[in-house]
Every structure is written in structure tokens, then in C-alpha cells.
Write a structure and sequence with these properties.
The protein is mainly β. The chain has a single domain (6-585), classed as Quinoprotein alcohol dehydrogenase-like superfamily (Methanol Dehydrogenase, Chain A).
Length: 589
């Protein structure tokens, strides 16, 4: 029986009332095995040990107990309310224990079969900490959980007790910056990025370019092992790309999504954000818009490949030179694939590509432009790229280097200019995760059909409320792109925006939307095979795991940061707030 009403949630809660005795709960934690680097790099099928399960950020699970034939029978087995704040969480599961990050620096350990609380950690955050009250993800290693706190610390907890193990300050407490992404664990190192200080505004305390960096910390002690600055300054390599701009005017090239890692190449892959202010004419030395177009301002809106042991930059690929707040920090997905881009659909193809050759690629949609890229994982060589949503900020891409060309009339050069920019700063794609399936060799992405009217003011661009892109009538789009050919295998236009996705060996694609619907799609054609109603919009990242012989699907729900454009462009009233986690499974025989 398909449950598609709130009664399903209530019934599931009732079914979960039988909980483990206290002694059994204690044994669950006591018997939990330490998580090794080998387990992280090759996780058990039933575990979810990293943000996207595996360090290649594919968001794929090999579990198939729940499949296309029986997914319509899913029922809620337990649910649990969560702390108020922006909901963007991704849980972890290990040995039957779920570790759930809440907004406001709260971490809980739960029985993964019932939702019963095993322990809870609440961090006391200073009143002057930045008010970005979300924690996207946490990481586990050994007997430690680690996360980035709102008061700029990397915090490690004992995974069995929730007690503080160590904490390391990431930056000066007066720097108005924050760390929404948690780290990934690479050979005993917690590697993470963060946002960084924007340009000064009123009395807001800020730091300079030194606040923008990536780090690795020793998981045993919290000691910093290396640091790479995403906004070069002084005599650092790349500093010359700022064309003489004073260090004090360089702001805001952060990395606010967790990286991926390739153990064979020993490379960690980060994406980066835009500068502040967005429009470079505010601080750049130039005589013409043509000259401005030639500047790079590294390492904004780029993919960076760093040596995981040293933090040394091995290669980078810059996707755009931003003037419009079109960040490129999203997940980099690693895939081994044949490449044979279809010129009928793929607009930009490197002529050096030999059709059918096998490559390890960094692929997917790294930024708000909605452009899908494929790059060689070892060298950063540009292979191919195609559009997935309407955009007007890139007129061409050099197919040998990957360097984008921007229309000169889209580059702001003076106060008072008004431009229709597509996509908007909400993005053709946003931080909501794509998912890859080896069953189809395709990446599935949640997209939005947005444009915006931008006006240059004395201090920066003013971004107007988002409007639907030309030729579109609904805000949401879900599509599947072949990693081999670049062809769009299928797409769905939707009145409501679909958020983060999960792919499984059962041939399913799970995802929720702004209108409280949580669905399972057929990977091959997008057919909806299961749909249910949850308490609020789906802001969190769905995962699946196994305890005993039973597979579960979990989804954190609730409103997220900057949800307004998605709400304003739907034809219905969208409830805000209501954070919770809802967990499904097939009925037990």
C-alpha cells in the first residue's frame, strides 16, 4: 500500500515506539567498531561513513533490498524532530548508530533502527558568532566524530559518549566567516574548506584574504598539518593574477562544500566561490572591458586538485571569471568511464579526445551556471562541457584549455548598469547534491530555471528577486546526463524544486522537493515509483543504510538557507521550518 499522507508519518512513529532497553542501547555504542581509513575508502554496503557515502562523492549505494519492484511498499518506521535552523544535514550511519548533525552545533547519536537517543552534544556558541545556523555534514574516524563549528573551531567528539575529545581554532574569532561544510577523512587527516570574509560592511568585523584557505588536521590531535590559501596574496603563487589589486581589497574566495578524494592519485578536489565584491570594476585596474575580461583573479570559481599529504596545488581549472555571484563550490564527482561526447548535444568538445578512450574524470555540475563539465582527474585537462539550463554569461569555451569567454555586454563596468543575468545567484544548480549511478553511467542533478535582474550600486551589485528563465514555465528541473556521451537521457520539468539526490543499486533515484514530497524515481526514465508527504520541504540529504537484514532510507526535512526564490516561484503556499528526520523501510514479514 502506498502511503502519501501525513498519516503515514504518524503511523510510522507509532510503529517505532518499541525501543531498546537502556542496557541494549549502551551495548550498541560500546560494541561499535573503530572506523579505519580502509573502511572509509571502501565502506561496507550497509554503512554511510562519509557525506556522499564514498570519497568520490557519487552519492550511490550498492544496497538493493529496496528496488523498483517493491519501493511502492515503503513505510515510515521512525521519525524524530530536530532543532530549528537551516536544514541542510547529511547523517552518517555506522554499526547500527546514526550520527545526526543539527543546526546550531548540535550532534546526536541515535539508534538507527528506532531513532532513540543514545547521546547528544550541544556546543555553547558565542553570541557574536556568524548567524549561519546550519551544519551540512560531519565525519567519522576511529572513535571520533569531527565537525566544523559556528565559532570557527574544528571539533572532535568521542563517538561512543559524545564527550569533547579535542578542538582546534580555525581562524580568529573576529573574522566574520563560517564553516558550513564538515571535513572528509583522508588517511587520518580531516581535510576541509570553509567560507571566508566578505568585504567590510558597516561595523561587521572581517578578515583579509588570509581568512580564505583549505586545511588538513591530524585526527588524533587536531594539529594543523597543511594550509592552502584559495585567495592568494603577498608573494604567493597566483597573487599576480589580481593585476596589482591591493591585498586589503581581496575578499571572499571560499570553499563551502566538502571535497572529494582519489586514493590512487592521492588528490583531493575542491571547488571555490566568487570574490567580494562580485563586479571586478570596483577594484581592478583596467582601461577597457576587453582588458577586464582577460583578468583571472585566482582562485575564484575554480576546481582545485591538491596533494592530500602536503596541500600542494597539482592543477586547477577556472570555470568563469565571476561578476554576478555565480559560485562554483559544488561536489566534484569522480568516475572511471569511457568518453565519447556526442557533438549533437555537447557544445564544447576537446579535439584531442579519442572517442571511446577510458578516463578517470572529475565530472558533474560544479557551479551555478548549470554547465556540466568533464575533466581528466589526473591532469585537469578539459574534455567536454554542455549546458543543462538556460544561461547567458558564457558565450564560448576554449575546447583546448577550458577557459570561458564572457559576453562583453554582460560584464558590469559602471554604477547604474542593469543586466538580466541567467542563471540567477540562486543558480541553475545550487549546493543540493547530484548523484551518480554505475547502472546507467549517468549523473542526476536537481536544477532550477532562474534568471535575475542585477543593478550595480556604489558598494556592489543589487540582485533582484529571481524570475523564471526565458522559455520555461516552472521553477524545477531534474535531469540525467550520460558521463560517457554527455547526452541528456531524460529530464522532468517540475512546478516544485527538487533538492538533494540519492542513487541505489535497486535502480532507484530518491529525492524530495519544496512541496513536502519525497519520491523514488526510476533511474532509466524518471518515472515516479513512490511518493509520500513529509512534514516540510526537504532540505537535507537523503541516505540509505542497512542494519541486520533490513535496508532503511532516511531523509532530513526542513527549510534551508536562501529558500525564498524557490518558494516565490511556485504556484502554492510552501510551509517553512519544521525540521525533522524521517526514516523508511519495507514492511517486515
Amino acid at each position: 500500500m502506498k502511503m502519501n499522507a501525513l498519516s503515514a508519518l504518524l503511523l510510522g512513529t507509532a510503529l517505532a515506539l518499541t525501543s531498546l532497553p537502556v542496557a541494549a542501547q549502551s551495548d550498541l555504542l560500546e560494541n561499535m567498531s573503530p572506523v579505519t581509513d580502509e573502511m572509509i575508502q571502501n565502506p561496507d554496503p550497509g554503512s554511510w561513513l562519509s557525506w556522499r557515502r564514498t570519497l568520490d562523492n557519487q552519492g550511490f549505494s550498492p544496497l538493493d533490498q529496496i528496488n523498483k519492484d517493491n519501493v511502492s511498499d515503503l513505510q515510515v518506521v521512525w521519525s524524530r524532530g530536530m532543532t530549528e535552523g537551516f536544514q541542510e544535514a547529511a547523517p552518517l550511519v555506522h554499526d547500527g548508530v546514526m550520527f545526526l548533525p543539527h543546526p546550531r552545533d548540535i550532534i546526536q547519536a541515535l539508534d538507527a533502527t528506532t531513532g532513540d537517543l543514545l547521546w547528544e552534544y550541544k556546543r555553547e556558541v558565542p553570541a557574536n558568532a556568524p548567524m549561519i545556523i546550519t551544519t551540512r555534514n560531519i565525519a567519522i574516524w576511529g572513535d571520533l566524530l569531527v565537525f566544523s563549528s559556528k565559532d570557527n573551531y574544528l571539533v572532535a567528539l568521542n563517538a561512543k559518549t559524545g564527550q569533547l575529545a579535542w578542538e582546534t581554532q580555525l581562524r580568529d574569532e573576529n573574522a566574520w566567516a563560517w564553516s558550513t561544510p564538515g571535513p572528509i577523512i583522508v588517511n587520518g587527516k580531516a581535510i576541509s574548506g570553509r567560507s571566508c570574509a566578505q568585504q567590510p560592511s558597516g561595523d561587521t568585523p572581517v578578515g583579509g584574504p588570509e581568512t580564505c584557505y583549505l586545511t588538513a588536521h591530524d585526527m588524533k590531535t587536531g594539529e594543523e598539518l597543511w594550509r592552502f590559501h584559495t585567495l592568494p596574496h603577498g608573494d604567493m603563487a597566483g597573487s599576480e593574477s589580481w593585476n596589482g589589486v591591493d591585498d586589503s581589497l581581496r575578499h571572499h574566495v571560499g570553499s563551502w562544500i566538502s571535497p572529494s578524494y582519489d586514493p590512487e592519485l592521492n588528490l583531493v578536489y575542491f571547488g571555490t566561490s566568487v570574490t567580494s565584491p562580485y563586479s571586478k570594476f570596483y577594484f581592478a585596474n583596467f582601461d577597457s572591458v576587453e582588458e577586464l575580461e582577460e583578468q583571472e583573479f585566482l582562485y575564484q570559481t575554480s576546481t582545485l586538485a591538491l596533494d592530500a599529504d602536503t596541500g600542494e596545488l597539482k592543477w586547477y581549472q577556472q570555470h568563469i571569471r565571476d561578476h554576478w555571484d555565480l559560485d562554483h563550490p559544488f561536489e566534484r564527482i569522480l568516475v572511471d568511464t569511457a568518453i565519447a561526447p556526442n557533438a549533437d548535444e555537447v557544445r564544447w568538445i576537446n579535439p584531442a579526445v579519442t572517442p571511446g578512450e577510458e578516463r578517470r574524470v572529475v565530472t558533474g555540475i560544479p557551479g551555478k551556471t548549470g554547465i556540466f563539465y568533464s575533466m581528466d582527474a589526473a591532469t585537469g585537462e578539459f574534455l567536454w562541457a554542455r549546458e543543462t539550463t538556460y544561461q547567458n554569461v558564457i558565450s564560448d569555451i576554449d575546447t583546448t584549455t577550458g577557459r570561458a569567454t564572457h559576453p562583453l555586454d554582460m560584464i558590469p563596468t559602471e554604477i547604474g548598469q542593469s543586466l538580466l543575468v541567467c542563471p540567477s545567484d540562486a543558480g541553475g544548480k545550487r549546493w543540493f547534491t547530484s548523484a551518480y549511478s554505475p547502472l546507467t553511467n549517468a549523473i542526476y542533478s536537481p536544477l532550477a530555471n532562474f534568471c535575475m535582474q542585477s543593478v550595480t550600486l556604489p558598494n556592489d551589485i543589487r540582485l533582484s528577486p529571481d524570475v523564471l528563465a526565458p522559455g520555461t514555465s516552472v521553477v524545477g528541473r531534474l535531469n540525467a546526463i550520460s558521463v560517457e556521451t554527455g547526452e541528456e537521457l531524460w529530464s522532468l520539468d517540475q512546478e516544485d524544486f527538487t533538492t538533494s539526490l540519492l542513487a541505489t543499486q535497486g535502480g532507484l533515484l530518491f529525492g524530495g522537493d519544496t512541496n513536502r514530497r519525497f519520491r523514488a524515481y526510476d533511474q532509466t526514465n524518471g518515472e515516479v515509483l513512490f511518493e509520500t508527504i513529509v512534514p516540510s520541504a526537504v532540505g537535507g540529504v537523503p541516505i540509505t543504510y542497512e542494519v541486520g537484514d533490513r535496508q532503511y532510507v532516511a531523509v532530513p526535512v526542513g527549510s534551508w538557507l536562501d529558500m525564498t526564490p524557490y518558494v516565490d516561484n511556485t504556484p502554492r503556499d510552501i510551509p517553512m521550518g519544521g525540521n525533522a528526520i524521517v526514516v523508511y523501510a519495507l514492511p517486515q514479514k
